[in-house]
Amino acid sequence: MWRIRCSPYSRFYCMPSEGVQLSPREHLLTDDEVFRLASLFVRNGVRKIRLTGGEPTVRKGLSMLISRLHGLRSFGLESIGMTSNGLALHRQLPGLVDAGLTHLNLSLDTLDPFKFEIITRRNGHEAVLKSLDVALSCLNLQSVKLNAVVMKGLNDTEVLDFVELTREKNIWVRFIEFMPFTGNKWDRAKMVPSVELLALIKEKHPTIEPVQTMSNDTARSWKIPGYRGGIGFISSMSDHFCSSCNRLRITADGQIKVCLFDAKEISLRDAIRHGADDDELLQIIRSAVWGKKEKHAGMDNIDTKSNRPMILIGG
Question: What is the pTM of this model?
Fold first, then answer.
């Protein structure tokens, strides 16, 4: 899995309350640079690419970029995914699917419009739900997932409501543990371990069953018999999956990160702009991968000072 970050969007757990300084356009990867790196990764075994946020739909020429990435399927690329806040997606999504988008993750932490404004610092709840409906109507989308970060005292009482969405809708709701990042005022007391959520769901749905997934999937998946969709748990804090994680992230300004929680970065953008050929780029990528730690620090010891805010990394 390779993830490309595109541009900013704000949720209070992703962006510091004071905001972030936007990068000058010349600091960001151009479409040609994105495509060159994507080609290099795919030709060397990467099979999945995901465009993440910030918010990909604010990037000009997104449909054309996806179309270019779609051309890499002949070299082994199997899927092109995107994570979106859904605010403007309903207008663009059919064209993006036609261009080659195959998988969609929508970020939605609450089914309550008032809480939505608290979490995102803006209105738009109805627009996200509209994007969900449009996504479910796109026959060529292979999967639609809802990502919900669960926080105690804010939206933890909505877990069963989210589960109920999967009764009639062919979606996977993934409950994500609240994670510490620069400026998001992480508090261990607000983090709800996935095991507690599963226990809560089992009380209501005792027949829920685990679903077999790939060894490097980030989510542990479950399904209630008779429901069209399913649920998953991403337990980065309470039960990490570092040993099986094969994700690489390329930030909008061209830095490679081998771990979401590691502040260390290596610039592929600078190497490209200084004339590096593909072999030299591969050597930089290998050195980054070989430098990956066995596991990230415990939840109370993660570096939230020198690492980027989540909005500048991409989920």
Answer: 0.86
